[in-house]
Each structure stands twice: as structure tokens, then as C-alpha cells.
Design a protein that fits this description.
This protein is an alpha+beta fold. The protein has four domains: 91 residues, Rossmann fold (3-Layer(aba) Sandwich); 68 residues, Dna Ligase, domain 1 (2-Layer Sandwich), CATH 3.30.1490.20; 128 residues, ATP-grasp fold, B domain (D-amino Acid Aminotransferase, Chain A, domain 1, 2-Layer Sandwich); 93 residues, Glycinamide Ribonucleotide Synthetase, Chain A, domain 4 (Alpha-Beta Complex). The chain contains 13 helices and 24 strands. It has a five-stranded parallel β-sheet with strand order 3-2-1-4-5. A five-stranded antiparallel β-sheet has the order 12-15-18-23-20. A four-stranded antiparallel β-sheet has the order 6-9-7-8, sandwiched between helices. Strand 16 and strand 17 form a beta hairpin. Helix 5 packs across helix 6 and helix 7 runs antiparallel to helix 8. The longest helix is centred in the middle third of the chain and has 21 residues. 48% of the residues are buried. The protein binds adenosine monophosphate and glycine. The site of glycine (GLY) has 6 residues, from loops.
């Protein structure tokens, strides 16, 4: 198979790394890719991810058998619709199904229609109405912009003043542009969070190992929210009973619901779950692999990812036996100075040789005049795996100084919860 992976982050490097091990693979391309992916795939420059016609022409010219779309933006922009119309196979949902992530209003209404457990909510376009609602509720709330906001569109206000200011900035000042034309005001829940990704062919659904992300910048879950500072899998807090509950009350109803509404979902459906005292609740759906979760889940996948992706596209996922390794994986994100606010880029990177059971996934790097330099907030995800999670944690931190650039910041406590409670 000739395969094209769309994207340039740590998630896509992990996908390329896994696909590169497939016995089915002939040629592998990444668009636009990154320097880490360049060691395993041919990076395609000069074509914008927004240029569906050019991507289609490339796929035809290179006889691409499968396109795997990493990020949400091209999915929400209908890349899969455009390529499918030309007869090109894609692993990833069409635009209408990608709405589960691209519109939080759609997602909440969809969950309500299909009785999928989630926090109580109301949606607003008008500031005045939102304000009146705010004043009428007497419990803590969360405010979310409906559209895509690169993980920044969720605010947990501590006071009424902060809540009002947040609504004003979204609905009046348009701080998020069109993405904030509508907001969801949601009941605030408490509990541990689990990222549960699942493969689906539109009809059947197979969960991956549960993972936990670390969204806050600093140790002990302090500091601002980020795109994710590290992850580990599997998450022992998520018991077999919970997995069963999530499959029956979340994943199956979601996949069946999308199918019954005429917008079947093919690809990876990601459920962000909260384990509340009243059971599992959905925080959000994403229409793609999670980042950094993918960097810990794919190293534990024993089955050929291309076999799974092909089965999803062909609607016969039930024929594939999806197997997982027994151990655990831990990913620590190395971020630039200033992340997640004002990021310093352009720093030289030095990577020493790493042991076999550790990979350094690139997330924000580029080559300039033959040098590897930093080019983003999250620069690398260093991932280790072992039979025991304690060993994976030890290994990742024992090797972390082998990946060096000025101003590097990372958390020292990724997966610490598993060992320390
Ligand atoms: P989302 O993008 O919707 O998953 O929200 C981002 C983060 O905000 C989640 O990972 C949670 O930590 C937090 N969050 C979102 N919704 C709620 C809620 N209803 N109650 C408590 N925390 C929430
Ligand atoms: N790690 C959160 C996400 O991928 O959306």
C-alpha cells in the first residue's frame, strides 16, 4: 500500500512511526510532515493542507491507496469528502461526522438525542440571554466556545464576574472569531479524566487502551492549560467495568447515532470522559487521534495499524483481531520556553542516541540550513514503554536530557498518579 499521512505534529509522527512497521506498506508520504517523520516517510512540501484539489492530484499521481488524516482542522474542512469524491480512500470522518468535534453545540445536542451521558447544558448566541441564564443557575459552570479553538475554547470561571467577562469576550468582542458565535454553558463536573479513543468503521467500534493526558503546564496539575504536557496508557483508574460502561453508554450509541442520522463516522472517535461519582460522563468528542495520547497508545498496539485502518474504510472492522501489548507507555512533552503563551522558537536541538524502547516523536521542529531547530510550543514527545509503568517512567526521565534545547520545560510527574495515587 502507498500511504499518505496528513499533519505535522507528534500525533502524526507516531502514526507514521507505526505505519512504517507495517508489512503491507510500500511507500509512505507525509504532508507536510516534520523532520522526525522525514526519517520514515517522504515529506511533501509545496502543497497546502487546505488545497484539496492539489492533494487529490498528488494521491492520483502517486497511486495513494490510503490517506490517514491526523488533525481535526482538515477533517472539519471536508478533506475526506473531497478526496472520497475522487475515489481516494481515507481513514477519517467526513465533514458532517467531524461535527462531533467541530461544533460543541452539535455534540451536546447529538448526545441529548441519543441519551449519551454528559453534563447538563444550554446554548446561546446572544450575550444578554447567556447572562440571564448565568444569573439563574446556582451551581458551578463551564463556558465553551462551540467551534474549533485549538484546545483554548474552554473556560472554568471561578467567579460570576469572571464568567460574565468570559461571555462578553466570546460573544461581544469575538475573541474566538466565528468559532465563538455560539457558546455552551455547562454544569461543572468533578472526577478523573480519561481519554478513550476507538476505531470505528461506521457500524462497529473497538476501543483502544484508555489513556490519561496531563493538560496543565506545571507539576501537580498547576499552571495554565496546554495542549497536553504528557500522557500515559493504559490508565489503571479506568477499570474493565468502566470500559464496558463506556462502550455501552458512549461509544456504541455515538457510532449508531451518527450512522442513523445519515452521517456514519469512519476513523478514530475520541471520547474525553470524566469519571464522576454518578458514573461516566462525556466531556467532549474529538474526531481524530488524540495528541499526546496517540504517542503512548500506538507503541502498545500489536496489530498492524494499516490492517485496522483498511478494515475501517472497508466496513469490516469486526474481522480484525486487535491486540495490545501487556506493558505501559509514558510520554513526556518537551516544550519551548514561554509555552503555552509566547513561545520562543529557533533554538538548536541536540538529540543523543536513545535506547530501543524509547522514541522521540517530533512535534514542533524544522530543518534550517542543515540544523534541527525548534519551531513550536510543544517540540518533542519522548515516549518510553516497558512491561511495568514504573520502569517506563524511570526510562523516560533517565533519557530526557538526551534531547536538549535552550529553555526546554517539561513536567517531572507524568504518570506519577499511577504510582503515588
Ligand atoms: P473539553 O475541550 O470540552 O474537553 O474541555 C477541556 C477541559 O476542560 C476538560 O479536559 C476538562 O478538564 C475541563 N472541562 C470541560 N468540561 C467540563 C465540565 N463540564 N466539568 C468540569 N470540567 C470540564
Ligand atoms: N489530548 C487532547 C486532545 O487530543 O484533544
Amino acid at each position: 500500500m502507498n500511504v499518505l499521512v496528513i499533519g505535522s505534529g507528534g500525533r502524526e509522527h507516531a502514526i507514521v512511526w507505526k505505519v512504517s512497521q507495517s508489512p503491507r506498506l510500500t511507500r509512505l508520504y507525509a504532508l507536510p510532515g516534520n523532520p522526525g517523520m522525514a526519517e520514515l516517510a517522504e515529506n511533501i512540501g509545496g502543497i497546502s493542507v487546505d488545497d484539496h484539489a492539489a492533494i487529490g492530484a498528488f494521491c492520483k499521481g502517486e497511486r495513494i491507496d490510503l490517506v490517514i488524516v491526523g488533525p481535526e482542522a482538515p477533517l472539519a474542512a471536508g478533506l475526506v469528502d473531497s478526496l472520497s469524491a475522487e475515489g481516494i480512500c481515507c481513514f477519517g470522518p467526513k465533514q458532517a461526522a467531524a461535527e462531533v468535534e467541530a461544533s460543541k453545540v452539535f455534540a451536546k445536542d447529538f448526545m441529548a438525542r441519543h441519551h449519551i451521558p454528559t453534563a447538563g447544558y444550554a446554548t446561546f448566541r446572544q450575550f444578554d440571554e447567556a447572562l440571564r441564564y448565568l444569573e439563574s443557575v446556582n451551581y458551578p459552570i463551564v463556558i465553551k466556545v462551540s467551534g474549533l479553538a485549538a484546545g483554548k475554547g474552554v473556560v472554568l470561571p471561578e467567579t460570576m464576574d469572571e464568567a460574565k467577562a468570559t461571555l462578553e469576550s466570546i460573544l461581544v468582542d469575538k475573541a474566538f472569531g466565528d468559532a465563538g458565535d455560539e457558546v455552551v454553558i455547562e454544569e461543572r463536573m468533578t472526577g478523573q479524566e480519561v481519554s478513550l479513543m476507538a476505531f470505528t468503521d461506521g457500524t462497529s467500534v473497538v476501543p483502544m487502551l484508555p489513556a490519561q493526558d496531563h493538560k496543565r503546564l506545571l507539576d501537580g496539575d498547576h499552571g495554565p492549560n496546554t495542549g497536553g504536557m504528557g500522557a500515559y496508557a493504559p490508565a489503571p483508574v479506568f477499570t474493565a467495568e468502566m470500559m464496558n460502561e463506556a462502550v455501552e453508554t458512549v461509544l456504541k450509541p455515538a457510532v449508531n447515532g451518527l450512522k442513523s442520522e445519515g452521517t456514519p463516522f469512519v476513523g478514530v472517535l475520541y471520547a474525553g470522559l470524566m469519571l464522576t461519582p454518578n458514573g461516566i460522563r462525556v466531556l467532549e468528542f474529538n474526531c481524530r487521534f488524540g495528541d499526546p495520547e496517540t504517542q503512548v497508545v500506538l507503541p502498545l498496539l500489536e496489530t498492524d495499524l494499516l490492517e485496522i485502518a483498511e478494515a475501517c474504510v472497508n466496513g469490516n472492522l469486526t474481522d480484525v483481531d486487535i491486540r495490545w501489548g501487556k506493558g505501559a507507555a509514558v510520554c513526556v512533552v518537551l516544550a519551548s520556553k514561554g509555552y503555552p503563551e509566547k513561545v520562543e522558537s529557533g533554538k538548536f536541538v541536540k538529540i543523543e542516541d536513545l535506547p530501543e524502547d524509547i522514541v522521540c516523536f517530533h512535534a514542533g521542529t524544522k530543518n534550517e540550513n542543515g540544523n534541527l531547530i525548534t519551531s513550536g510550543g510543544r517540540v518533542f514527545g519522548l515516549t518510553a514503554w516497558a512491561n511495568e509503568i514504573g520502569v517506563a517512567i524511570e526510562n523516560v526521565y533517565a533519557n530526557i536530557r538526551k534531547v536538549a534545547f535552550e529553555g526546554v520545560q517539561y513536567r517531572r510527574d507524568i504518570a506519577g498518579k499511577v504510582l503515588n495515587g
